[in-house]
Specification:
182 residues, 5 strands, 30% helix, disordered C terminus
């Protein structure tokens, strides 16, 4: 069931945003205990837009066993260019090791992606409505860059109007799976 955990804003407090690109803040409250709990449940990797070499020492300073080695273990044992595990990419196709964190900037398959900036996708009508509401929020320009962090977007008359406009733009048809032609 591999779990992906975002770094900035989920583990690293990231109170000033990117700033000068350094990792300057302590962990988010509860992050270390939470990460250890997830590691007890299953394999976990840290997904970041930073270079993994920058994040690794920060995590190690809090006692985590960390790797940034994404080489395919099957390729390391054989010189076969048609590796059945990675199909010749020479990189891990997924992360399965427990008790050790992988830090990567590649989005590997996971059952759960824990991220402070995510919007859950259920259908395009909902997605466009939620993304539009988030990026057009006037509070973002004048206050904290993430005014909704830790809270769900609340239904408001303006958001309801936006939802109606999106529904009209995308059509009134109910969401459906697009089946391939037969």
């Amino acid at each position: 069931m591999t779990i992906s955990v975002d770094f900035d804003g989920v583990l690293h407090r990231y109170g000033r945003g990117w700033a000068d690109g350094t990792i300057y803040d302590p962990p988010m409250p509860g992050a270390l205990a939470g990460l250890r709990t997830l590691l007890a449940l299953d394999s976990v990797f840290i997904l970041t837009s930073r270079e993994p070499e920058q994040v690794m020492p920060w995590l190690e300073s809090y006692g985590f066993d960390v790797t940034i080695d994404e080489r395919c273990a099957t390729c390391l044992r054989s010189a076969d260019p048609a590796c059945p595990a990675c199909h010749g990419s020479r990189l891990l196709p997924f992360w399965e090791l427990r008790d050790q964190l992988l830090v990567t900037n590649r989005k590997l398959p996971a059952r759960v992606y824990l991220d402070d900036r995510a919007i859950r996708f259920t259908d395009w009508r909902q997605a466009v409505t939620d993304v539009t509401a988030e990026v057009s929020n006037p509070l973002q320009a004048t206050t904290h860059p993430w005014p909704h962090r830790g809270t769900a977007l609340r239904t408001t008359p303006a958001r309801d109007q936006l939802g109606a406009a999106v529904t009209e733009a995308l059509g009134a048809a109910t969401p459906h799976r697009e089946d391939p032609p037969r």
